[in-house]
């Protein structure tokens, strides 16, 4: 069971080192991150991209590159395809987006024949620590799906439950978020939450206890749930919080960093191998934790 | 200029005491709050509701009620109408919702002939402190408007700007929030943000600098804005953050309390007198600060 984000680093070190392939690695921030991850001993890397630029950056950042594999693919589309191929061939365990457009990267990852598709949908999950000693909480989807349909929400839940199980939860508690805890026909999210809860009751979504709608307070605070007289296994004790749309997810993800100063790891689930897609503006700590999380679940 | 929430208490005490009328005050939490506010010296009260119950609660809570006016209106509709009437007659400066349904309370407040209507829309604003010494930030609308239209968003901005001006801002910086800082036709909020920004540029929304769309990070963090290469007066320095819908507002409001442990005051603007509508589950500190804020702007 992973109870703290730093536990990820410890857990990884119990196993033989795994490999991350980076598509289009020829960017200073990426190369610095590679150096940091190698120093921490959490991953080995295959760097795909413009070999000359990658080498120059490695030298400039004073990173010992003798143990790093570099594959020359200056073209972004080819770099993405090569990275996917290395995962499919078992030569890498995790794929990471480097300095190329998200669309170019995902096109290769989601290619129906040569890609890493598993289900129909990939989704993002933000992982952070609850209050001291209470374990991890997962927030989804903060980055990939703009306005998911009911069917897509079901898959977003499944992806998050998959991750929670890998982190050691036996039967994670999933809270479906809206602006309020009552079903209100004028707020379609609350209706979706009611439907998804019942689907889970009937075994149509497995390995999790699912309830909703909730407002954020009564999803994560037992006191707030009690004051509103909301009962059940999930109320106030959510392990997974599913937001109704990208606006809410993105705002909450940013609030965790900019209002609450919480440490964060981000995962992308729904493919045959974990994906790491960090943003240039993410703190280094977030980037390293996201790499560790991907390695851990791979 | 009000730079900290506690400054509200100090500022109020510079002026002769003002009066809050509470509709349906016959509830223990409300009466306790009245006692706390009287002890702090921030307001006088007129308690409208079931006189016998109110008296019994005042005695039970050991509150000196000799200086409190009590008006007997056991019926909720009548209590709300009486409270509104007292404001319209100049006998109270602020109206507060007691232990009655929100719909009953707002029906009296928004009555076209006898109510407290000013514009066409009332909206909620959450007020909290930025980082140490950087002043207050306003977040709107977290409670009233579910999915505001473009025209309604304009009025939500106007209500927040009104409040900011009263708090001492000369020309508040308004950031229009979405899930990202680019205009994306698939995300209608981003389009609304572009339109509203231009309306402000052309003087169609006054007394404020308005820009958007922003993601939360580049709205409130100068570093995040710089990293994304977003310029302008608002980027990273928002005084007012307008959310695209209630889901986002409610989640962020709750995140301020439950993730970030921030102190909060909540205002409702758009009427001829400020309204206080606290939730039973709000911390006492929030309730008192919200009363102080309403008194301050009245």
What's the tally of helices of chain A?
Answer: 11
Proportion in helices of chain A: 40-55%
Largest protein interface, residues of each chain: A-B, 37 and 37 residues
Report how far apart the termini of chain A are.
16 Å
| Uncertain segments of chain A | none
Q: What's the story with the biggest beta sheet of chain A?
A: 6 strands, mixed
What is the strand arrangement across the widest sheet of chain A? Answer: 8-7-9-6-5-10
What's the SSE pattern of chain A?
Answer: HEHEHEHEHEEHEHEHHEHEEH
Query: Structural class of the secondary structure composition of chain A?
Result: alpha/beta
Percent strand of chain A equals: 15-25%
Described by its quaternary structure, the protein is homodimer
User: How confident overall, as mean pLDDT of chain A?
Assistant: 95
Q: What Rg of chain A, in angstroms, do the CA atoms define?
A: 20 Å
Large-scale geometry of chain A: elongated
Number of strand segments of chain A: 11
Describe the protein.
Two copies of one chain form a homodimer. Chain A is elongated and about 60 Å long. The longest helix of chain A is centred in the middle third of the chain and has 17 residues. In chain A, a hairpin with a 6-residue loop joins β5 and β6. In chain A, the strands form two sheets. In chain A, strands 8-7-9-6-5-10 form a six-stranded mixed sheet. The first copy, chain A, is built from eleven helices and eleven strands. With 298 residues, the first copy, chain A, is α/β, with parallel strands linked by helices. In chain A, α1 packs across α11. Chain A starts with 5 loop residues before the first helix and ends with a helix. Chains A and B meet through α8 and α10 of A and α8 and α10 of B.
């Amino acid at each position: 069971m992973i109870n703290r984000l730093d536990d990820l680093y410890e857990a990884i070190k119990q196993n033989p080192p795994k490999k991350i392939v980076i598509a289009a690695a020829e960017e200073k921030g990426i190369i610095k991150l590679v150096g940091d991850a190698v120093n921490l001993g959490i991953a080995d890397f295959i760097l795909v991209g413009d070999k000359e630029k990658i080498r120059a950056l490695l030298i400039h950042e004073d990173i010992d590159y003798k143990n790093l594999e570099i594959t020359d693919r200056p073209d972004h589309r080819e770099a993405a395809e090569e990275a996917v191929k290395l995962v499919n061939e078992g030569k890498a365990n995790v794929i990471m987006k480097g300095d190329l457009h998200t669309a170019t990267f995902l096109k290769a990852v989601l290619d129906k024949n040569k890609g890493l598709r598993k289900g129909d949908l990939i989704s993002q999950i933000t992982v952070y620590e609850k209050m001291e000693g209470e374990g991890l909480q997962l927030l989804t989807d903060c980055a990939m799906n703009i306005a998911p349909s009911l069917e897509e929400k079901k898959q977003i839940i499944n992806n998050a439950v998959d991750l929670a199980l890998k982190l050691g939860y036996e039967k994670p508690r999933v809270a479906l978020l809206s602006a309020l805890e009552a079903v209100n026909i004028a707020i379609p999210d609350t209706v979706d939450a009611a439907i998804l809860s019942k689907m889970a009751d009937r075994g149509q979504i497995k390995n999790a206890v699912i309830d909703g709608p909730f407002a954020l307070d009564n999803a994560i605070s037992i006191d707030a749930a009690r004051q509103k007289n909301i009962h059940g296994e999930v109320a106030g004790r959510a392990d997974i919080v599913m937001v109704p749309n990208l606006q809410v997810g993105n705002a909450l993800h940013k609030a965790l960093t900019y209002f609450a100063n919480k440490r964060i790891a981000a995962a992308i689930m729904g493919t045959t191998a974990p994906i790491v897609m960090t943003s240039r503006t993410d703190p280094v700590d977030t980037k390293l934790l996201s790499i560790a999380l991907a390695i851990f679940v791979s």
